[in-house]
Design goal:
With 318 residues, this protein is an alpha+beta fold. The chain has eight helices and ten strands.
Length: 318
Amino acid sequence: MVSNAKRLCQRSLLNDISKWKAILDDDLYQIPTLISMLCCQIIDSKQTSLILKQVNEYFNWQKYKHVKRIYCTTDEQNQQQKIEILLCRSIDTLDKIYPQEFLSKYFHMNNVTTVQIPEKQPLLKWQYEECRKNYWPNLSYRENKYLEQEYSNKKNEINSKEEAIIDMLKQLQTNHAVQSQHCAVVTNSEHEILVATIDYRHEHPLQHCTMIAIDLIAQMSNGGCYHNRKNFLYEFLLSSTVEKPTTNHLCNSYFIYLTHEPCMMCAMALLHSRIAKVYYLETVDYGALGTKYKLHCLKKTNHRFQVYKLQIENEQEQ
């Protein structure tokens, strides 16, 4: 489907643009939180199945299902197989969890060690490899191809429809954004443009371009409150019609393109309007979707959405 807006220039504004960079949860850029566990060597490897069954009765392992309790290795001195097992957290006392007879019968109690394991399952392969290499070798891992792709920043190239949208933002800044350079464009999932607007915070402190854009979408369904604000899309149209929203939630499945990272107020408005994706060209010191906060990554919100920032070729990775 072809964008309903005219192309305004031939990549002249995009010469240095590389791709969109996903703004991801900080958890993806660091090792998962580690906890200490007590580890002990089993005396008789033939009893491993029986021991594991009893150990699971004494210390529930459901919370750490991503970690396999048993690790089999070879003793470097006598070249014999040895089996190690995780018994409990280091903050616990073995004697209070396991009967003394059980411990002395099945384990080398003179060689209890402390090891660290990830408290939660690693989300990315690099986290998994680091945890296996430096902490506990026997972990479960299931690749999340979407997260791996977003983390590696692959397949986030800017397409021709997005070039037209970026051009429109630049034209809005040049032609209309006199007081503030903040502008917004809302599209559906096919990149059909629905709304193009500018910032009015110089007239009212709450009328940021994001708030105006959401309100203009609401007006298409006979809602909204900023009826004196203009949808500048009509200046760029090849046709005279604009698709009207058909969803119960305002911006469900829609994308918004912004010249600047939204503030906390606008980010919350985007969350409540059920936006699907947010793209912005520039960061701001008070930004709530990457710079100062990452609102879209909060675990307990009732809606999650994706956020992308324009990545410049010569811009160093942070």
